[in-house]
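Need residues for this backbone.
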């Protein structure tokens, strides 16, 4: 082992313990690369969703269970160390090439980094709202539009995107209401007209409380006192990518704050890769996260080879 190699705690630091990060760590382990995987236990796969779109699980698989299975699979590989700490800052290593990750629990260095930190969804907040996420409050029409078949659905949102998604949900149910949950209505006149033509009520009001049992919705009451019985809340209030660590390294973000990557999940900073929901607005599927994690791992593995093994001079 050279002196330069001794400076590093691992070949690759992977930040994020959702499906993208777990997939990255698994592929890297199969390349016999040493990995430090940082998992704070947060993210979309920490809620109550049952995913029905992941091939090979008849009846669906809870996102939490899939995450547990991923960690169990990684236990087969001594190359991977799972650290349940938060990384607060990423920078370039002081000595030699590589990167330094730091947090309250310590400092670590590696030759490459994969950022798989996901997003923060903007769910409507009311008393006990966390119990409803993934049970009767959803955000993704691809994942859970099917769950709305024949149900009474209230869509929460105050943009043309929320109106657009409400109109698309007509494929699954005709019992739809759009609630802005905001002091101002930002839905354009053209979309308001389309909602009216489809006989979809647009209510400009905010949530006061939701009544339900064990995470299953029953009734919503607005600030002005409007009461609506319903089965499903569909939140279309957007999300914020957790891309601060990429900014620490000077990685380019797109206009919405997502990490810009190429088709191999590489950023514009050599040795830095990203995978999963943090990379772009329309990659938010478990299947996509697993794929992107595997691709990021392959790209990171290739990056780590010396030039003589890559056809470089």
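Answer:
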């Amino acid at each position: 082992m050279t002196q330069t190699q001794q400076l590093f705690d691992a070949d690759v630091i992977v930040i994020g313990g959702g499906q993208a990060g777990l997939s990255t760590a698994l592929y890297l382990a199969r390349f016999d690369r040493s990995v430090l995987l940082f998992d704070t236990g947060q993210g979309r796969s920490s809620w109550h969703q049952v995913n029905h779109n992941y091939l090979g699980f008849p009846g669906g698989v809870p996102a939490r269970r899939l995450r547990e299975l991923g960690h169990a699979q990684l236990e087969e590989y001594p190359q991977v160390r799972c650290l349940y700490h938060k990384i607060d800052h990423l920078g370039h290593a002081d000595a030699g090439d590589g990167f330094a990750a730091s947090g309250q629990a310590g400092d670590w260095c590696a030759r490459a980094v994969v950022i798989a930190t996901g997003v923060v969804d903007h769910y409507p907040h009311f008393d006990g709202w966390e119990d409803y996420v993934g049970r009767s409050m959803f955000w993704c029409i691809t994942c859970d539009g099917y769950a709305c078949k024949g149900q009474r659905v209230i869509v929460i949102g105050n943009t043309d995107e929320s109106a657009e998604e409400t109109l698309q949900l007509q494929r699954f149910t005709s019992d739809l209401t759009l609630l802005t949950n905001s002091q101002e209505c930002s839905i354009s006149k053209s979309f308001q007209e389309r909602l009216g033509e489809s006989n979809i009520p647009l209510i400009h009001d905010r949530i006061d409380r939701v009544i339900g049992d064990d995470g299953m919705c029953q009734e919503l009451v607005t600030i002005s006192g409007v009461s609506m019985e319903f089965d499903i809340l569909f939140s279309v209030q957007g999300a914020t990518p957790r891309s601060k660590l990429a900014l620490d390294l000077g990685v380019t973000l797109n206009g919405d704050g997502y990490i810009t990557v190429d088709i191999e999940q590489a950023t514009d900073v050599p040795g830095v890769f990203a995978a999963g929901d943090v990379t772009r607005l329309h990659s938010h599927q478990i299947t996509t996260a697993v794929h992107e994690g595997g691709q990021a791992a392959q790209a990171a593995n290739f990056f780590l080879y010396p030039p003589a093994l890559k056809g470089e001079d």
